[in-house]
Amino acid sequence: MDVLVEAGFADDRSIRSLMLGELRAALKVPFAISDQLTARDQLIEIVNICSRVDDGMAILAAVLELMRPGTPEYAEVHRLVSALPVHDVVPEAEQERLRRWLAGFTPSGLVAAARRAARNSAPPPKFEDAWAAFCFLADFNAAPGELPPALIFVELIATECAETRRGPLRDWTNGQARRYRLDTALDELRAELAQTRRQGGKLHLMIVVQPDGIEPDRYLVCSWRQDEPDEWPPPCGDCVLVRAPDLEDHVDDLVVQAERAWSGRAADVVLEFVLPRSLLNIPVHRWATERRSGDPQPLFLTYPIVVRSLERMTSRQWHRRWRVRWSALMTDPSMERVYFCQDKDTEEQLRLGAILSDQQWVMMVLSESPPARPIPGHDQLFTAFRAGLPALVWHPSAGSDVLREVVAWLVGGDRLGDLPARTQESRQAVFQGRQVPFDIDVFRDLVVLWDDPSRLVFLGDDVPDPSEQGGFGDNRAS
Q1: What is the mean pLDDT of residues 371-392?
Q2: What torsion, rounded to 10 degrees, do the Cα atoms 449, 450, 455, 456 define?
């Protein structure tokens, strides 16, 4: 990092912005740097992000060569990067044990499994067989508490095997997980794979909107289009800086592009918007698609739409609780798991947190729309995320009695697990003249936050840590 300071990147904001643009294009990993940081701290965050991405430090050196060719600073960075060791995540003896099961084996999902295991950090090469793919992944490191990519790959491949091969492969992954003390992580991976099989052919388009961190009216928009139901995460698409007034047009382009790519598929599709707190109240479900046709229509007529939290996705200290509550929701999707928040719950500090600590609750109905800025010590949204609740519902104007009726109608009969699809049907009903026991227009502005922890993407850690700020939000919001 000191080398970057000596090269002048701490002194010139425009040069830092140019470097960020080159890194985003080369890393193919979306990230934004908070403008609340000092110039030196921004450089520290840039180096940290590169260090967490495979080949990220080498890419940083290449960008520095592009911007400072032939300089002593570039030579020093190149020397430091070349000296970094490659961690051997699997002992040679264990690799040899595995080789006889993978050598010569070429399942149909070989490339997809390798790409998923590598977290799409780089396009995988063409592999001769599963053993070649394993050897490629054996040099990839994992963050503390995460499964090594090579182990993930073997588990993914095992799902495609006959029992005679699946058994030994799973015995191997079980042994490796015990050795690394990652039994829980392996169980979570298997639960995610089982859930994918239950969902069948459903595809997702995830659109992530991050504050740029340099200009207040600009956002970094990235998308992940799922072309295979059992593949997550898919490769990240292009990341584009978009002004706030142009967000709807850009989303329209992404949806149209996705539909063209899916033209040969007969599958249901879900749209997910991962948004910063300051944008959670924007009615993205009413944004239009095919705007250039002259006859646009709102997204909710075609797709189930959910919003997700950018801050929660980047706050890994909450992910364990989040996964626990999600598992509980999938196991028991009943109305009895829904908590209806009242204003008095936040009058006394810690009261709502104590209520939500009860494992009974997996969803909460907020008493009001969450403000763009958090309310330290009294914030419903922050408290729900910290407790791990994966599902939240709110409305900008409907009273508590109306919301209780609406939610009971949506999730009654153990249908909480179908909340996104049920909400879409109800929004469509506004235009179909169907009869319901309440004002159906309430669905026009109903917000459903539905956060599935099995669909995560790497976004870096540049979003401010909400646990250090008493809540989270874009500090520029008004």
Answers
A1: 94
A2: 30
Distance, CA of 84 to CA of 87 (rounded, Å): 9
Beta strands in 226-283 (DSSP E): 240-243, 269-275
pLDDT at 83 over 50: no
Token pair recorded at residue 324: 């626990």
Closest CA to 44 of 85, 8, 83, 5: 5
How far, in Å, CA of 227 to CA of 230, rounded? 9
User: Could you tell me the pLDDT band of residue 376, with boundaries at 50, 70 and 90?
Assistant: confident
pLDDT, residue 12, reads 82
Three-state DSSP at 464 gives coil
What does pLDDT average to over the chain?
Answer: 85
- Model confidence over 70-79: pLDDT tens digits? 888 877 776 6
Residue with tokens 């090594």: 148
Domains of the chain, residue spans: 2-82, 92-199, 203-468
- CA dist 227 and 115 (Å) reads 13
How far is it, in rounded angstroms, from Cα 429 to Cα 447? 16
What kind and span of H or E run contains 261?
A: helix 247-261
Rounded alpha-carbon distances, angstroms, from residue 388 to 253, 316, 381, 451: 33, 11, 11, 10
